Amino acid sequence: MTMDKSFDATAAEARISAEWERLGAFAAGANASRAETFTVMIPPPNVTGSLHIGHAFNNTLQDILVRWHRMRGFDTLWQPGQDHAGIATQMVVERRMAERQEPGRREIGRDAFVEKIWAWKQESGDTIINQLKRLGASCDWSRNAFTMSGAPGAPAGEEGNFHDAVIRVFVDLYTKGIIYRGKRLVNWDPHFETAISDLEVENREVPGHMWHFKYPLAGGATYEYVERDEDGRVTLRETRDYISIATTRPETMLGDGAVAVHPSDERYAPIVGQLVEIPVGPKEHRRLIPIITDDYPDPSFGSGAVKITGAHDFNDYGVAQRNGIPLYALLDTKGAMRGDGLSYAESAAIASRAAKGEDVGDVSTVNLVPDDLRGLDRFEARSRVIEQVTAEGLAVTYLHREIEPETGAEHLERRPVVDAKPITQPFGDRSGVVIEPMLTDQWFVDTKRIVGPALEAVRDGRTQILPEQHKKVYFNWLENIEPWTISRQLWWGHQIPVWYGPRIEEGYDIEKDGMAALTYNRPQQFCAATEQDALKQAREYYGNAVEIRVSPVDFFDPLHGGQRKSPNPAAFGVGNAIRQAVQRIELSRDPDVLDTWFSSGLWPIGTLGWPEPTEELKKYFPTDVLVTGFDIIFFWVARMMMMQLEVARDVPFHTVYVHGLVRDEKGAKMSKSKGNVIDPLVLVDDFGADALRFTLTSMAAMGRDPKLGPKHVEVNRNFVTKLWNATRFAEMNGVRGGGARPDPANTVNRWIIGETARVLMVTDEALASYRFNDAATGLYAFVWGKVCDWYVEFAKPLFDGEDAEETRATMGWVLDQCYAMLHPIMPFVTEELWALTGDRTKMLVHGDWPQLGAELIDADADARMNWVIALIEAVRSARAQMGVPAGAKLDLIVTEADAPARAALMANAPLIERLARVNTPMDGAAGKGMIAVSAQGASFALPIGDVIDVAAETARLTKAVGKADKDADGLRKRLSNPKFAQNAEAEVIEETQAKLAALEDDIARLRAALDQLAAM
């Protein structure tokens, strides 16, 4: 079959992908010829996702490792799958419902809404899987996993036990006391009305304001306020009856529990322990809070005094916890000011008692939002609070001076101090709304109980993290770990397997005392894998005197510990009045779902069938390598380590390879707002998947961020073309692949076989140590430089001589090795060439990886041919440097040559003459009008005086030297600048040093050329 003139990537990729899939080429164990296994777990993309450049990079590196091991006969599994992506999926489906003008999720109810999500998933949820196939990812697609497989309500085709595994782990960790329900501060998304992880928070710098307010001392008390400079000299002394605070969120003042100052701050020492008045709220119920000391306030920042709103700020929360300050919640789930709970008068009275040190117990029903602000949006409430404080004269002011232009009259006016300044504000990465720190009832993993083995496994080397620098990130996070919030206030996800019922107070007997023995203030929890098991636990708890059933109603408000709906008193047996009523208890299931990081934390074992003792689990766990980005080391990698070690008692993987972030060609982070996002599918359409894959691989230097632009991919599309054209040349000269390794006599053929063995050893070593870029650049240099350029040129005259047949056999074998070695990086074009160039018994995806050793390197052939190449390159370089016309054929005068050099010259003279554009070498002496070139053991002269304009070339080179000198001087100044050395990233400094070194080499060559011209 005659090859086409060019490779049609679009047609070939689709055809080859279909054939791989038809043959089951990627199935676990396919092509296995040895007992060793190699397992990679795909970092599961969101089911809502589409392929971005980071996915393309990550999956290309995984695919290289998998294809390399599969070709070497390992029993290989690349496990694919998707994460159910709670918030993202719920958002997509709700948006689609709105676009179709369908009733909202709250109108149709939970079951109907979840059914809609499943329908969407079956219709659109495989987008990224199909895109990964376009990239050439060789996952075992028959095993495609999903973190919600087997969940209640899952339709046909979504069977599996991943859901059961997640629930089982929750129950197990709950039973051990590792999972618990508690009230802590979390990131709260008011749009989705759920807690979110730090990973889902995007911190942005936005224009902001800092307002300064006065908190009056209680009872009109005063103190002497003194400020001093660094030398202790008094710069301000005045009597004050207030303490000044500054805030960017004035609405949170309503929930203040204290004002804190640093213990060393002498300005406030006289008033520590006194009470101050919050300057907002009804005067008749104006609250007092204490002035306390804590290490958190910075005496040098602002006034040095900090308002403490423990329920709405992470730093304040820590201060409140350390000092026993009550946590007063102000906002509802939508981020509006609360309208529930006690009246303001009742709430203020309780808070006032707490400020005096009284124990007021649970304050979840305390609502310190004044009646006129209840229900307002948080930002509208902010404006109202500012107005009220300012109107009362409790804003800190400054004296504003203004001159009237017409009369020159001076006007003085006191104005509030408001600092306009950029602030860092948290936003939901999907909702786009400002995130609120909120005190909520959530489920937590007591990570300190399970973190030890995860730390030890990396310390003792059972799991390696590469590059080494990322160990610091891993250790730093785990050594300072906080409880892990695992509940989300969503409907899509693994519903918390906990049911609630009224608690029997200690000392009461339900059979004797009836329903009066029950209280719902602290509900009893029943954690079980199924509803039946929960009912069984409830029967054991309540006894047989009552009827027990599960209610369809959700009762819990995650923010304030209250009830979303008032339950039927008879159903819960509230109060003595219903002792004679139907003795029935209704359990209510926790409405929350688990954070997706919890379920994906079980990915390695969950996808292999755990907790069932499956053959896959026995064979493929622990897995071998995880390829992932640095940004999820602590969000996913660390969680998998903790979870697998706790549940399966083993590490989930032996190696974690952490790659960098793909940036644009200027090194900037890609973002939609900058307009510099690169769509990998567009690059595939324009240049082919192989070109994109090779580009990404060549940029995958360990510890570096790749800088990618279309021009880089275009260059490697040319590499694909080069390989294709070299194969066409071979075909036109009667070359066929599929033969055994030849044992040629010709020096050229023996040389190229040795070069093939050499690059294979380099490639194997590079892939084994995850130096993907070294593998790619080594293959590029060999295939393009040694094979497609030098060997093809060397072979041309051989096809017409007595060594023609051995040259055809050698070239066919060498090209086969090129296809095999390039296949893991460039699977499509190599698979196509493999099929076109020989009679094959199997596809290249299952081809045998080359097994070549150093014994194939012929030292004599290697030395001779590398000498020839060096001489030709030296002559070509000199011609180009001196501006010799390309068509001019020069004499090659041998001025000096030792025996090995002369032997190499005589044996390969025809090659040298043709490729260097020189006449038959002749002995002679260097003379006027000649330039010198050299090779090992020999010196030569090239007469060029008659073919160039010496004066013009001298001027050209002088100008080039001047420009290079100027550029080099600029780089030297930059590198010697201390600020550059201190502030620039290590990669930028290294690149600058490399540019300077290259320029200095250029300058040296240019000056040497000028010296030669001068000698002419």
From TrEMBL:
* A GO-annotated cellular component: cytosol
Q: What is its main location?
A: cytoplasm
Query: Does Coiled coil appear among the keywords?
Result: yes
Class of enzymatic activity (EC top level): ligase
Q: Which reaction does it catalyse?
A: tRNA(Val) + L-valine + ATP = L-valyl-tRNA(Val) + AMP + diphosphate
InterPro entries in the record, alphabetically?
aa-tRNA-synth_I_CS, aa-tRNA-synth_Ia, Anticodon_Ia_Val, M/V/L/I-tRNA-synth_anticd-bd, Rossmann-like_a/b/a_fold, tRNA-bd_arm, tRNAsynth_Ia_anticodon-bd, Val-tRNA_synth_C_sf
Identify the EC number(s): 6.1.1.9
- Give start and end of each Methionyl/Valyl/Leucyl/Isoleucyl-tRNA synthetase anticodon-binding domain: 749-893
Motif 'KMSKS' region in this chain: 669-673
Q: Which GO terms describe its biological process?
A: valyl-tRNA aminoacylation
- In the UniProt record, does the keyword Ubl conjugation occur? no
TM helices/strands, residue ranges: none
Taxonomy, superkingdom: Bacteria
Instruction: Cite the entry's keywords alphabetically.
Output: Aminoacyl-tRNA synthetase, ATP-binding, Coiled coil, Cytoplasm, Ligase, Nucleotide-binding, Protein biosynthesis
Q: Where does ATP bind?
A: 672
What exactly does this protein do? Catalyzes the attachment of valine to tRNA(Val). As ValRS can inadvertently accommodate and process structurally similar amino acids such as threonine, to avoid such errors, it has a 'posttransfer' editing activity that hydrolyzes mischarged Thr-tRNA(Val) in a tRNA-dependent manner.
The UniProt family comment states: Belongs to the class-I aminoacyl-tRNA synthetase family. ValS type 1 subfamily.
Q: What's the name of the protein?
A: Valine--tRNA ligase
> Which gene is the coding source of this polypeptide chain?
valS
